[in-house]
Amino acid sequence: MMKKMGLQEAVGTKLGHDITEIRPGEFKGPAFRKGHTVCHEDLCHLQRLGKNHLYAIDLENDEIHENGAVAILAKALAGKGITWKDEPREGKIKFFAGIDGVLGVNTAALAAFNMVEEVMCATLHNHTLVKTGEQVAATRAIPLVMKRTPIERAAAIARQGGSVLEIKALRNAKAGLVITGNEVYHGLIEDRFAPVLKGKMQALGSEVMALDFAPDDAKAIARVIRSHLDRGCDLLLLSGGMSVDPDDVTRHGIRLAGASEFHYGAAALPGAMFLVAYLGDVPLLGVPACGLYHRITVLDILLPRILAGERIGKKELAFLGHGGLCRDCSECTFPSCSFGKGG
Amino acid sequence: MENFETLLKGSAEAHGHLCPGQVVGVRMARLGCELIGLDNPRAPDQIKKIVVYVEIDRCAADAIGYVTGVRLGRRSLKFVDNGIMAATFVNLESGHAYRVVSTEEARDLASLYAPEIQGNARQQLEAYQRMPDSVLFRVQRVEVPMSEFDLPGPTRRKVSCTRCGQVVRDHREVVIDGAVLCRPCADGAYFKHAQEMTWPDMNWTPGRAEALAPAVRKIRETDNFRTAESVVPG
Would you say the pTM of this structure is higher than 0.90? Predict the structure, then answer.
């Protein structure tokens, strides 16, 4: 229960919540913290903040203060790899990445959680690649005092499937590169794909342990794939030959090698002719030639997710469509842009 | 209790089709029974312990009846015409009662729980099977005051309406200025212009030919009362 009292009346009482001060462009934070005993010297400051009344808080048995509520919410929302402290500021608790990895957000559970009127949680996009210490989300209870029941229900909703938020660490893959194309294989032009792909793997903490070239011949491509697997590669990147010309036979090579699962085409640009196949548990990624021209393609969206253990299928490739169009900015700001964030 | 899939299949057969309401109703009933501690409400040793108040007359109501075994004729199914997708499950033995309310937000969340499925009904059908109870329902612990006249079992009281003579069972009569009246006489009824009618061969009994007696057919064909079909709009 909250009782409204005038400032004079409030002198000597303890504040029931943080009081926020905003000085445009200069400061936003608590001017007074919860528990602070109001004294005469505070009154002018409070009036400058537009406060002529304060609340005296007297909790009923079935009620909870925002700070207690937000701690319950935070505990339920945070999963593996997420760090947070039970030190709410202005009723809010922030979540941080405790490890490097891919942020996982259970978007359905998050939406269901936010449907409870008394609570909110805002996050970065699902699948965002984050570094240790980065803020990934924050939560708060909306009212200052509320019934316990909706908070407990929101917490139950957040716990479906474990938690709403987690950080999935990237595995250190031993990647094998297969660079296809007669023009490269026969030395007509110099390959420029391998350094690009190597750079992307290394940036994600993986190594390239095998690199081979193959002509536009499905059987030869299949042989190189098998040879990479025999050498212990646990992720294969195949470049070129992913389009629709008669010489584009990489897909056939992947099938010949015995891929058990095969998805050709991603709802992203650049990267529409991307291919994901699996040989057992080993992902085979067919990177179309756009990967040579564009700095960022669908590969940059999916590679972290695959290294974080996600199995990419038809659904995942299709769901990329919303937000799957690169704006092709003159100065690329990826990943701080919308590309690949909707899926 | 049978598993969810078996209950849903049986419920859909009994209801006539599989629909999102069947999923919600079966889940609501399972949850309600679990809350009042009945694991097999249709079993002979439990069937007399349960009463369910259903607040909606839509698909889910049939599913609740199917799963719990409650029946209007057993007085274990009470229909309260609130137009709310909710039901209250009462354990007559322990007195425990829980009201389970289907959330409105579940409808809005269906596309997030089953994003790969097209079409509202199909998407809801799948999504309502994926959502946890916390998303699909709100649950209230309630007290349900029940008089002995609400309970299953034999009729406990009969009185006659002083205006029309109709016998009224189980204390559903109304007393106005000391006069005992049936509800239609006291409060008005859902029907109007009631006119008693008979016909010469109003004598059909089981075992006689099933065909309508000629006199009944004649009444049906010539009656100038508005029939049920004729009042359906459009």
Answer: no
